[in-house]
Each structure stands twice: as structure tokens, then as C-alpha cells.
Write a structure and sequence with these properties.
The protein is α+β, with helices and mostly antiparallel strands and 105 residues long. 23% of the residues lie in helices and 47% in strands. The protein contains 2 helices and 5 strands; from the N terminus they run αβββαββ. A 5-stranded mixed β-sheet has the order 1-2-3-5-4, covered by helices on one side. Strand 2 and strand 3 form a beta hairpin. Helix 1 packs antiparallel against helix 2. The longest helix is centred in the C-terminal third of the chain and has 13 residues. It is elongated.
């Protein structure tokens, strides 16, 4: 999956989103998403790269726990047959929940 395809997938979710961070003058309404490419895994043999996948993280930020919003986010990777690991953190200093989805695409 290319970064352009990932961007299109983020648009499918329908929430404000940005790669790595929003710019200083942007103030997205809650809930919003931040996505990032954390690395790349490759499979190679005999001096040829046969396969490459990106390590994609999608973070959902919200000021309240919302199973409906989480289901909106999860619908898109499921539709694309992408498996993910999910974790949750309360960020006290920001008074926000962060739901992290880690996946390879």
C-alpha cells in the first residue's frame, strides 16, 4: 500500500486527520486522527526484494470514550482486510483518550 492509498483510506474514515501532526494554525474538532509510517518491513532473498510492507500507526484522539467512533475507525481497515493491534491510553496532561491502531499495510 502506498502513502497515497493510505491517505485515501484515512479519508474513508471521515474524521479530521493529518500525517504526524496538524499545523499550528489548524485546530481540528474532536475526535481526530493522527497517522504515521513507523518503518518498513521487507522480505528479500537472492539479492532481490520480493515484498515490502509499511508499519502504519493510526491514533484516535477524543475527550470521551466512544465505542461508536472506534467502530467508525475500525470499519475501514476491516473493509480493506487489514489486521491491527489496538491499545488505549489516557493522556492526563491533554485530558484525551488515545486509541492506537498498529498495523502493517
Amino acid at each position: 500500500m502506498t502513502q497515497e492509498e493510505i491517505h485515501e483510506m484515512m479519508l474513508e474514515i471521515g474524521l479530521p486527520s493529518a500525517y504526524e501532526h496538524f499545523s499550528e494554525n489548524e485546530n481540528p474538532s474532536l475526535p481526530f486522527l493522527i497517522w504515521s509510517i513507523e518503518g518498513e518491513n521487507t522480505f528479500s532473498a537472492d539479492n532481490h526484494m520480493y515484498y515490502s510492507s509499511l508499519q502504519l500507526n493510526i491514533s484516535l484522539y477524543n475527550d470521551e470514550k466512544s465505542q461508536e467512533t472506534e467502530a467508525e475507525v475500525e470499519r475501514v481497515p476491516k473493509h480493506h482486510h487489514i489486521f491491527y493491534n489496538k491499545s488505549e491510553t489516557w493522556i492526563e496532561s491533554e485530558k484525551l483518550y488515545e486509541i492506537l491502531y498498529e498495523m502493517e499495510v
